[in-house]
UniProtKB/TrEMBL annotation:
Its main location: membrane. One of its GO terms (molecular function) is porin activity. This is Porin. CDD domains: gram_neg_porins (cd00342). Residues 1-20 form the signal peptide.
């Protein structure tokens, strides 16, 4: 009897120890709401939607303590629609992220799988479209040209992310083409850094995607995820935020250069890349947020985008103005109600482009307005 009692005590002690050394966290965001768009392909639209502001998703994050400050980790994230229960990101089971790796308290984290690039990791949190959990989808820069709203993830990627050293972090990622005899046929590489000291946050990032329009469907980027189909995309930028009491002010600059551009949002009717010059975007964003009370937050941004493109009708310089304002009312720490209005105006300069707020069908003219109301729950 005494022996049985000792064995049971040892088993219970081991179980408690194992539980303390291994953790699996289930988390997610559910966003459901209604939106009104004044012009989608020439008609107004009332719609019930999932993820108008924050993409609905759930995930699992696991850590196993290996000793010596080293942990084995994995993360799986699934994107879905609340309205019809379907999978997002091209029907992937874990379309947001899926990776495994090792983390060390001294050096940092090394992971392999489907992951975010360095621009998303280090620069996007300073922008209005990137600083909300899951991103503010209606506030992405035109066509999400700089991927601050993480329109695409990187497959076959190896990523290193450092720990914080006196407020400085840095990291890099490489997404393999997985193509025999075509090392740069649909690959992506990126790097970035950030700095945080008290109320000040700074960040910068760069990525380059090569031969994104190739027929290699097993490479770093999946063609159906991308706004642009181009032979090469370079995106880089920098930004910062500063907090004063209940207010936070931010500024972000990014530039995207596209070579051999074939399509935008899957449309090739603009005669793009007729002379091989492609397209470029320069985005200048100002954003701010203010906690009016512990339960009411006011947020907003303005972005000016200057573009340059070449198509069958010549060289054009379209310009975009985007404004978004948002009010959040927090019912609890996990649940909030939101109202957001976004406006975009384009001076197309003969390019054939029209207003096109992220997540909507394009307008038939140079303006588009979207108003969305909804509820988010985080768990």
């Amino acid at each position: 009897m005494k022996k049985t009692f000792v064995m049971a005590a040892l088993a219970a002690s081991y179980a408690c120890h194992a539980q303390a050394q291994n953790t699996v966290t289930l988390y997610g965001v559910i966003d459901a709401g209604l939106s009104y768009t004044n012009n989608q392909k020439g008609s107004s639209a009332w719609q019930a939607g999932s993820g108008d502001v924050t993409g609905s998703h759930w995930g699992m994050l696991a850590r196993e303590d290996l000793g010596g400050g080293t942990k084995a980790i994995f993360q799986l994230e699934n994107g879905f629609s609340v309205m019809n229960g379907t999978l997002r990101q091209g029907g992937r089971l874990f379309g947001y992220q899926a990776y495994t790796g090792l983390s060390n308290d001294r050096f940092g984290t090394l992971t392999l799988g489907r992951q975010y690039d360095s621009v998303v990791d280090y620069l996007a949190p300073l922008s209005f479209t990137g600083h909300h959990p899951g991103g503010n989808n209606l506030s992405a820069h035109p066509y999400d040209n700089d991927n601050l709203n993480n329109s695409f993830r990187v497959n076959n990627s190896v990523k290193f992310a450092s720990n914080s050293y006196a407020g400085v972090k840095f990291g890099a990622l490489y997404g393999f083409s997985n193509e025999a005899g075509g090392f740069d046929d649909n690959r992506l590489y990126s790097f970035g850094t950030s700095y945080e000291a008290g109320p000040l946050r700074l960040g910068a990032g760069y990525f380059q995607a090569d031969n994104g329009g190739s027929s290699n469907t097993n490479g770093a980027l999946t063609l159906t995820d991308r706004t642009f189909i181009a032979a090469r995309q370079r995106t880089y930028g920098a930004g910062g935020t500063y907090s004063i009491g209940a207010a936070t002010f931010g500024a972000v600059w990014t530039r995207t250069q596209l070579g051999g551009l074939a399509t935008i949002n899957g449309a090739n009717s603009l005669g793009l890349a007729a002379n091989g010059e492609g397209m470029s975007f320069s985005n200048y964003e100002l954003n701010a947020s203010y906690s009016l009370t512990p339960t009411i937050a006011l947020n907003g941004e303005y972005t000016y985008t200057s573009g340059s493109m070449s198509n069958a009708t010549g060289q054009h310089h379209p310009k975009w103005h985007e404004v978004s304002v948002q009010t959040d009312y927090f019912l609890s720490k996990r649940t909030d109600l939101y109202v957001q209005a976004s406006y975009q105006h384009i001076s197309a300069d003969g390019s054939g482009l029209t207003a096109d707020i992220s997540g909507q069908s394009a307008s038939s003219n140079d303006q588009q307005i979207v108003v969305a109301v909804g509820m988010r729950h985080r768990f």
